[in-house]
Automatic annotation (TrEMBL):
Entry EC no(s): 2.7.6.3
Function of the molecule: Catalyzes the transfer of pyrophosphate from adenosine triphosphate (ATP) to 6-hydroxymethyl-7,8-dihydropterin, an enzymatic step in folate biosynthesis pathway.
Lineage: Bacteria, Pseudomonadati, Pseudomonadota, Alphaproteobacteria, Rhodobacterales
Family: Belongs to the HPPK family.
GO molecular function: 2-amino-4-hydroxy-6-hydroxymethyldihydropteridine diphosphokinase activity; ATP binding; kinase activity
The protein, known as: 2-amino-4-hydroxy-6-hydroxymethyldihydropteridine pyrophosphokinase
Organism of this sequence: Palleronia salina
């Protein structure tokens, strides 16, 4: 690993079985492929269960957050995540539809992509526009991470002190700023982690 390597964070989610493969097994498979293809140890939060978003849009999700050290460009890491999703049977019929696997690149070190102004624009996108509008390029940190308890609750287990390069807020502080009902909806997964 290059001395200039950074820590990358990936959100994992699944709420559909693929044949006999349960959502939790799907996350385990995705983690194994990440480790195999990237050839780097991965730290993983506990698995959690969370309601689908938007409400009533599908079965509950199994979620986790993983971290790995990388010297890869962020775009290459995102390509790897998309490759793994495809290998595991991910299709993209509609935005926020139920899925067998979802791998979101949350952050790579303190990198802001493509630039601060564009990032700030997407981070501030009104909720009613989020359903229909998606960026045509990689935005880092993920522009919705501060809104998602299913990301922040498990992320706080492995990196509570990671600080958002645009807002200055830590993962723990972003988690604690969410409504209590959102945090409470993220429950320990009764099938365990890995």
């Amino acid at each position: 690993m290059d001395i200039n390597s950074q820590t990358a964070f990936v959100a994992l989610g699944s709420n559909l079985a693929a044949g006999q493969t349960t959502p939790a097994e799907m996350l385990k498979n995705a983690l194994q492929l990440m480790e195999d293809y990237h050839d780097s140890p991965i730290e993983v939060s506990d698995f959690v269960s969370s309601p689908a978003f938007p409400p009533n849009s599908g079965p509950d999700f199994v979620n986790a957050v993983a971290s790995l050290r990388t010297d890869w460009p962020a775009e290459r890491l995102l390509e790897l995540l998309h490759q793994i999703e495809a290998e595991l049977g991910r299709t993209r019929p509609a935005r926020w539809a139920p899925r067998v696997v979802d791998l979101d690149l949350l952050a790579v070190g303190k990198l802001v992509l493509p630039d601060a102004a564009t990032h700030d624009q997407w981070r501030a996108l009104a909720p009613d526009r989020q359903r229909s509008e998606a960026p045509d390029r990689l935005i880092l940190p993920h522009p919705r991470l501060q809104d998602r308890a299913f990301v922040l609750v498990p992320w706080a287990q492995i990196a509570p002190d990671w600080r958002h390069p645009r807002t200055g807020m830590t993962v723990a502080r972003m988690r604690d700023a969410l409504p209590a009902a959102d945090r409470d909806a993220v429950r320990p997964f009764d099938g365990g982690g890995i």
